[in-house]
Amino acid sequence: QRIVGAELAGLIPTDGWQPSELHLMADGTPHDGVGRFADWACSETGCVILDASYEDCQYMEGMAEPIFKWTRFNVDTLTQEWPKVQEIRQKIDNMVEWLEAAPIIHFGELLEFLTVKAKSKRKKIVKARPKLLYDPTEQWCPLDQQNEYEEEDDNEEGAGDNAEEDGATRLREATIGDIAAINRF
Q: Acidic residues compositional bias: what residue ranges (predicted)?
């Protein structure tokens, strides 16, 4: 309200807009990065590096940050996602530059654009919006990390090789079904 005034801010739905709604309204327009920013804010970009935070990682006692391993899985995952990360960030950065050039005017234009678009599209997009509950397990970082039960093997021969070669199986990613099954016990 402070930036654009109560009248324009009052047009924003009480529950805001979902990322899917913002994509439908803004993708392919001069405001193309709005949906991407919403994806990023909701950890829904589909890219580990943008969706995971330090809260989603495993920490070792006494360490300030998680330690990621240089495994083939991590390198392949990050390499594969990097072009998409660059595309998403470019669209977000373009929106940020535009907004910062004249914050009051441009934010007002953006809200006006979205509220006009929303009047025609909102009814088509969402009939009944699901109640969104935050589940921290949905965002567990799937990258291989060192845990407190493993010793660093940087100086050992073969360091960085595939950790699965010794026949040990690992859990890369927990699904909602797995978590639900665990929580029953």
A: 147-166
Residue 173 to residue 1: CA distance in whole angstroms: 41
Tell which residue, 6, 19, 39, 2, has the closest CA to residue 114: 19
In tens, the pLDDT along 77-106 reads 999 999 999 999 999 999 999 999 998 889
Q: What is the pTM of this model?
A: 0.67
What φ, ψ does residue 145 adopt, rounded to 5°?
Answer: -130, 155
92 burial class (0-12, 13-18, 19+ CB within 10 angstroms)? buried
Structure confidence by residue, pLDDT tens digits, 119-145: 766 555 544 455 555 565 666 778 878
The amino acid at 130? P
CA angle 15, 34, 97 (to 5 degrees): 130
